[in-house]
Amino acid sequence: MDIITSQKGYQVSVRKRKKEEERLLMKIKSIYEASRQTYGSPRVHADLKDQGETCSRHRIAKLMKKSGIVAKMTKKFKTTTKANPKAKAAPNLLKQNFTAVQPNQRWVADISYIWTLEGWLYIACVLDLFSRRIVGLAMEERMTDDLVIAALEQALLHRNPSTGLLHHSDKGSQYTSRDFQKKLAQYHIISSMSGTGNCYDNAAMESFFHTLKTEHVYFERYQTREQAKKSIFEYIEVFYNRQRRHSTLNYKTPLTFEQNYQYQTISCLLSVH
Fold it and tell me: In angstroms, rounded to a whole number, what is the distance separating the alpha carbons of residues 195 and 90?
């Protein structure tokens, strides 16, 4: 092979590689925008794998870095609830075990808040540890017992859990209130609460609020509470529960993770019969 032929072959190879990178980069940008600019290379790579691409995660990270594609995230946030020193708190039965082998086995709950030009908006959520899906959501201008009860009632309505469900929260006065504990007892739900001042005891819920705020809320400017409610509801129900890939779920979405479980359960039952 002469030098000229070798050079031509090399040039063809370079052009081919560049064309392939451009094709891949277009897909990366499409996934990145669909994720509301929240995906880093691990989640982008997971999406590409589902599309049949065989590229490595390292290559995706390199292309994203080269093109300046970075997952948006900003600021930190503070916890909200305050304990009632006179209230009787439940023991910590969860003990930082944030896993579950089936839906509606362990729920975690907490309250956070965001600022609007009308004032604070308080958000109460219930999360299923099995799939990291938000199953209960309530938002009001005041942080009352009714707020957390409304989030729990929504979760109960949507999920219809069996007896023995574990509900974990902090020792906030809303969760230790008589009305809230009465609601748990009514549905035979076991109450569990974090140790005093230990944010790690409810880390899964803290992680959700961190994601909500740093990926979404802090990039918005809410004029009214109603505007904020619609925005947060849409983020949680449309994006977080149905589209956002979670590292704890092997980069599956909560909805997909639950659907896979249901499919496997049904398959097992059919095979027995």
Answer: 10
